[in-house]
Amino acid sequence: MKSILKYSTQDGHKRSLINLYVLHSLHREPKTGYDLLKEIEELTKGVWVPSKGTIYPMLRQLEEQGIIVPQETGARAKTIYALTENGETALTEMKERRHQSHENVQIIRNIHTEIFGEGRASLAENVWEIWDYIRDHSHDKQKRAQEILMQCKDDLRELGEEGETVE
Amino acid sequence: MKSILKYSTQDGHKRSLINLYVLHSLHREPKTGYDLLKEIEELTKGVWVPSKGTIYPMLRQLEEQGIIVPQETGARAKTIYALTENGETALTEMKERRHQSHENVQIIRNIHTEIFGEGRASLAENVWEIWDYIRDHSHDKQKRAQEILMQCKDDLRELGEEGETVE
DNA sequence: CATGCATATTTCGATAGCGCACTGTTCGAC
DNA sequence: GTCGAACAGTGCGCTATCGAAATATGCATG
């Protein structure tokens, strides 16, 4: 009951982060296992690519649980999965438990801070900090946050262009 | 090579978050497996308690790797572990890779936001774009990039502070 | 049309971490 | 004095994920 990055559901089930993501992604649009892999790779800038030995067995498991259904579209023997109604319900339930996930993320963050300390400040870390600022902004401020970011992007692009040295 | 919450070392090894934490904690003070369990439980306010079937085998593994040594102090058959010199080195190396861990944590947060955080997607995209820009900057430009980022952070912080945001 | 690359999936052995049950000790309370 | 709670560790089976190899198809390029 006390494991990290596992989200428990109403019924006895547990869902991992990938698991949750799969539901979320299939909710937006039905797709294949391969699509999911690519999507996650892109989302994480290639930092995390789930193994095929993870995603495909998981899809089959979700199918058995009646969470998703294959919509066999012939070409290239690929299997497009979609959420069932049960799946939609399960996803909604999970999303209502937002705080649970938030708590888990926070825990990881705390441990990380405990180990590495608060110190700074590589370029990359500055980006993450910026991210920290905006993620908690209220809705009405988002537009202005957006503008500030655009300005920052422009400045950086400009910097990048002056004297095109490839290194 | 592309798994989350695994930190690769100079040698071929991989370390998990717990693994890293154990090194960090034993560095500060030698202690038993049980102590480590309690410590983590406290640190995470009881949200995460690693299983004994996790911690003890791990300690033995670390011992085999010459990272830690048991300092048998008789009473109650308990085994107090301490970092070896190799362990200290390994820890230092890991800490130098701060950014790697930071990146991993960020990935998790990002996925979390993708799933739970409606409406913030576009903001996230901007952050990623900024990330892309600075990543490719040559060394001599980094300092100026840093300044631009600091400016951006300050602006955002200011935005955040004007009028108490509740969300 | 051969060659190779991106797509798409299967299969399988290895390992990490979980959860539970079990053993034994020390200490305080009743 | 014995009972229960906290301390300290062992052992084992289960599952999730990894990682790598194998297979097969469609698409582009020459």
Protein topology:
The structure is a homodimer of 167-residue chains.
Chain A (H helix, E strand, L loop, with lengths): L5 E3 L5 E3 H12 L4 H11 L8 H13 L3 E3 L10 E3 L1 H12 L1 H19 L6 H13 L3 H23 L6
Antiparallel strand pairs in A: 1-2, 3-4
Helix pairs in contact in A: 1-4, 2-3
Chain A binds a DNA duplex (30 and 30 nucleotides) through helix 2 and helix 3.
Could you characterize the architecture of this molecule?
Two copies of one chain form a homodimer. Chain A is 62% helix and 7% strand. Chain A contains seven helices and four strands. In chain A, helix 1 (17-28) crosses helix 4 and helix 2 packs across helix 3 (52-64). Chain A is mostly helical and 167 residues long. The first copy, chain A, folds into two domains: 6-99, Arc Repressor Mutant, subunit A, CATH 1.10.10.10; 120-167, no CATH class. Chains A and B meet through helix 1, helix 5, helix 6 and helix 7 of A and helix 1, helix 5, helix 6 and helix 7 of B. Chain A binds a DNA duplex (30 and 30 nucleotides) through helix 2 and helix 3.
Terminus-to-terminus distance of chain A: 50 Å
How confident overall, as mean pLDDT of chain A?
A: 84
Please state the oligomeric state of the protein chains shown: homodimer
Number of strands of chain A: 4
Regions with little confidence, pLDDT below 50 for 5+ residues of chain A: none
CATH topology of the largest domain in chain A: Arc Repressor Mutant, subunit A
Helix-and-strand structural type of chain A: mainly alpha
SSE ordering of chain A: EEHHHEEHHHH
* CATH-defined architecture of the largest domain in chain A: Orthogonal Bundle
Major sheet strand order of chain A: 1-2
Task: State the CATH superfamily name of the largest domain in chain A.
Answer: Winged helix-like DNA-binding domain superfamily/Winged helix DNA-binding domain
Taken from the alpha-carbon principal axes, the silhouette of chain A is globular
**Most extensive interface, chain pair and sizes:** A-B, 68 and 72 residues
